[in-house]
Amino acid sequence: MHGTGTDRPPYADAGYYGDITHPAGRLIDLLTEIAVRVGGGDDYLKARAVTRLDQGMGGGKSHACIGAFHLAAHPEALLATELGEKVAERAKAKMGRQLAHDLGRPHVLVLPCDNMTAGAGVQELDGPAVSLYERFLWRLFSKDYALYERYRPFWSDKHKIAEAIRAVNRPVLIIVDEVLDYIGNGLDGANKPDLAAQDMAFLRALLDTVSDVPHVAMLMVMIASDVDKTALSAAAKERRDDLNTLLERNGKPDTVTEAGDFADILRRRLFDTEPANEVLTATAALYEPVLNDKAWNKHVWEQMGADWRRDWSAEVAACYPFHPMLMSVAKEEWSRVTGFQRVRSTIKIFAATVYALQQRGKAGGWVPALIGPGDIPLSEGPVREALLGSGLVEDERTTANYRSLAEIEIVNHDGSSGTACRQDLERPETPWVKANPHAAERAATFIFLASIVGTLRPGRGRGASAPEVKAATSVPDTSYTITDADSVVDELVNPDRGISALDIVRGQGNNKPARYFLSTRLTHRMLVNNIRRTITESERDQVIAEFAQKLANSGPFRELKFVPADPHRTATEVMATSGLDTAYTARLIVLDPAQFSLRNGMEKSTLEALNVAMGLGQGAQQLPVQWASSAVYAVVNTQRRSLVRGLAIEYVARQRALAAPAVQNDSELKSTGTKELAAAKDQLEKALKRAYQHVVFLAQPDPDGERYLDEVTHDDDNFTALNGTAVWKALAARDKVFDVGEFTPRALQHNLREQDHGKTLSDIRAAFYSAPRLPLLYGGDRDLQQAIYDAVNEGLVSIVDGVGTEVAVTAAGQVNLASTSLRLAKPLPPVCLTCGEQAHEGQCAAGSETSPPNDSPQGGTSSSVPPNGPKDQAAGAGRPHGGATPPAKDQKVAFSFTSNLLASSESADGFAALFRAFYMALDERQISYLQGTVQIVLQAEAAEQIQQRLNDLGITATFKEI
């Protein structure tokens, strides 16, 4: 009120003050008491002399003091306003007559104790005065030095103080604002015991005197001790208690506003005119469908206890353009926070909000029909600063932290970033997005509002409840359903994609829903989320590659290789230069997921690279590859790789978070970090194993056909191509390999072609690693040695030298697979021991002339020896001798067919006879080895029976509907 020029506030004008002030009932009562006391003439005793305003911060005390000042200093101007008219009307009712229009020209004395330093007066205002009493006199006498000196010695004399007041010869209004600031810490700071004693003695005398002097009123502001949390010394507390006692004896505590005045005061301060009734009616009706929706009722309105719904139309009329939910938060929650000036702070926040939304609407942006608790635009600097500077936040450090959180987690200054803002911007097109384009931002804003007040939300606990957050996202449009609200909130609080600084208290049924609190304290989740944003793709892929190498094992494969990605070269170039063509070695080759994958339309480069690596390239890409058949490739699935990549980022983020000093020095954070890292590692390993579901190999089922890439793909989550043993089992089911113990002499004989007889052992060995028609061997060279040795002993094959002489083999280890002179040959027929010719039935004619009858073998048949005599006897061990009939030799049968049986019943009968012959041969154990692939089209019932039989045999088959 003492400002000058441009520093003078607008409400220093009495007319302006009256225009912006809502005529609240209690304010009118207060001003009426003062008007009657100072200007009521002989009726002054009908009004009290001393009034104490004891409301907390923001209760309207300062505004009331200004009103009292204008009433006494500018009565004609104030009484001409709506507020003044109501005061005059009330005073008339009290006195039974009209008030004097000038109230007798009162003198106003103001002691603004919150702006006065004890023991140090201001020359301009206080002249020579130092103590509180001296300042009172100087202002009472309007700088009249003579009168000031006459009464200065009598600081505790009630009679003299009363005489001094009467000396003014006018009604007097004394306003003492925030007196506790002066008598509390103010006098402590002066450190002048005599001054403190004088000032307190003066206040005692003044309070006892005012009631005895006619036409004098006193308005003192001192917040009730149970509301004012100011820390005081023991001496200051004694002074406060002393003054409390005096005020209780001489005055009456009063308030100037009630809860019902709050919305009216705000609207009076912010808007020039009242809204039209048709606007209020239409707006209220706009929300009715959503407020009455059964799902919203059950899951939101009833759970949050929305009392403002009960008389919705009246609430809208009282609060417009603000949503009753926002007004309820301001009235019932913000106003209880120490330091928050209820009216003044709320006006700043709401004024900045209205202006920002008005400008947004003018620019064509979305604005709500009613401004709710989620509609305070934190992207606007004035709004954000008004909110954070309102006293709701405890201290400057917390204010700075919440300022940063609003920018990072909700929305930045230009509405282009922030976690919640990005979720809105990146949301796919939905039926409700135009009606509610800022749904996530609105939800996050309410969580922000509920968090900055700390734990002080009355009856609601810490932070915002899930129903409240959903309510903050609601719009008067039925296309936005409770299900949509659920999805918006779930996405916002998602640990991986949502707000990182969120403390979540999990719900326990409908009676105790989840709560969300935006915390400024460093949490492990916040640290992980912040680190997550710094992880590059190359760092992510490096971790995946390391895990793939650790998890891979060779199993029966002799060698395990890993082909790392090279982002600077193509997949084909990487494969062609990786040195994969290793001789005489069954190899499991794991391809780096960073560059190689199959399926999902992203496999072209990988398939091209595999074809080149297998020697199937064309033109310039055709490489001289010899050992492709013994290379098996483990390849990741493209879709599953995306999951792995996300989990890899989580793992790296938690790994780095655990290593951070802030976590290592905090036992709670360290424990949390250790557990989360272990869980992230386990999830990454499982997902990576499942992602490697493709096995690629070189195939040639028809020895005379073309070579091509074949593949085994398993959807079973327990299968992984990183496990060499599992891969081998899968390949065995496709006849690409022999499993353990399967490569018998008969299997060897079956897989040898006619032209293979006569090849060197070295060539035979090489064929099993280079020819895709030949399966890979479980034990590699050892299995081949054993099979050849057993086949020789069983007379299925022979080993001969360069001139065709059969070589004896006494142990499997003696089969020299590296030999280029020893060859694999068909077994030689037995010879007669007597004549050296092929064994024959009956007695040898050449031996009957020289050998006595009893020297011949029993049965009269000739004996046979190996063709090279006793030297090669061991090689012929176990063969039939003498006249015994040699056993019939096995025959290898190979055939293929394709036939449409629907067109020819004769063909169907013929194939039925063929398979009956197969059945008879199998039933009579006349078939010793089977290998083949059958593709048939048959009825579903028959397919089920065949599938059962195949399952009994452990044979994997593919059944598809056509």
Give the arrangement of secondary structure elements.
Blueprint: H1 14-20, H2 25-39, E1 50-53, H3 61-73, H4 75-79, H5 82-95, E2 107-112, H6 123-126, H7 132-140, H8 145-151, H9 158-166, E3 172-177, H10 179-190, H11 193-210, E4 216-221, H12 234-250, E5 252-254, H13 262-270, H14 277-291, H15 294-304, H16 312-319, H17 324-332, H18 342-362, H19 381-388, H20 396-410, H21 419-425, H22 439-452, E6 464-465, H23 466-473, H24 482-492, E7 502-505, E8 515-518, H25 524-532, H26 537-551, E9 559-563, H27 571-576, E10 587-591, H28 604-613, E11 631-635, H29 638-659, H30 661-664, H31 667-691, E12 694-699, E13 708-713, H32 724-733, H33 745-751, H34 761-770, H35 781-793, E14 798-800, E15 823-825, E16 831-832, H36 845-848, E17 864-865, H37 905-923, H38 940-953
Parallel strand pairs: 1-4, 1-5, 2-3, 3-4, 9-10, 10-11
Antiparallel strand pairs: 6-8, 7-8, 11-12, 12-13, 14-15, 16-17
Describe this structure in words.
The chain is α/β, with parallel strands linked by helices and 962 residues long. The protein is 45% helix and 7% strand. The strands form 5 sheets. It has a 5-stranded parallel beta sheet with strand order 2-3-4-1-5, with helices on both faces. The radius of gyration is 50 Å and the shape is elongated. Residues 853-885 have low confidence and may be disordered.
